[in-house]
Write a structure and sequence with these properties.
Oligomer: single chain
Low-confidence stretches: 1-16
Largest sheet: none
Helix content: 40-55%
Structural class: mainly alpha
Distance between the termini: 41 Å
């Protein structure tokens, strides 16, 4: 398996963000995909892993949804999936599964 090296041009003095550092590892993906809903309605579902990586990128960098890099797909898909899953409680289910996997030894810190 080859690893892609991403070159990002940044303004002088700015810190470069390496896109791969926002992507889930194979182990993380195998864990999360078991918790995700698998019913698809209508149009064929896009790659969940790519969309979740886009969600994580937006949340970690603070960029607007519209400014997501193209490698995560259309920003509207990423935004809509985040909102739909939030409304349906999918994110809570994912976090509950993470806590259960670590025997309840997980602490979440909020900056708000």
């Amino acid at each position: 398996m080859t690893t892609a090296v991403w070159r990002i041009s940044t303004p002088v003095g700015a810190r470069a963000i390496h896109p791969i550092c926002f992507d889930m590892s194979e182990l993380e993906w195998q864990f999360i995909k078991c918790v995700l809903p698998n019913k698809s309605r209508g149009v064929k579902r896009v790659d969940d892993r790519r969309v979740i990586n886009g969600i994580f990128y937006a949340l970690r960098t603070g960029c607007s949804w519209r400014d997501l890099p193209g490698r995560y797909g259309p920003y509207t898909t990423v935004y809509n999936r985040f909102n739909r899953w939030a409304y349906a409680g999918i994110w809570d289910q994912i976090m509950d599964a993470v806590v259960d996997a670590h025997s309840g030894d997980v602490v979440m810190i909020s900056s708000r």
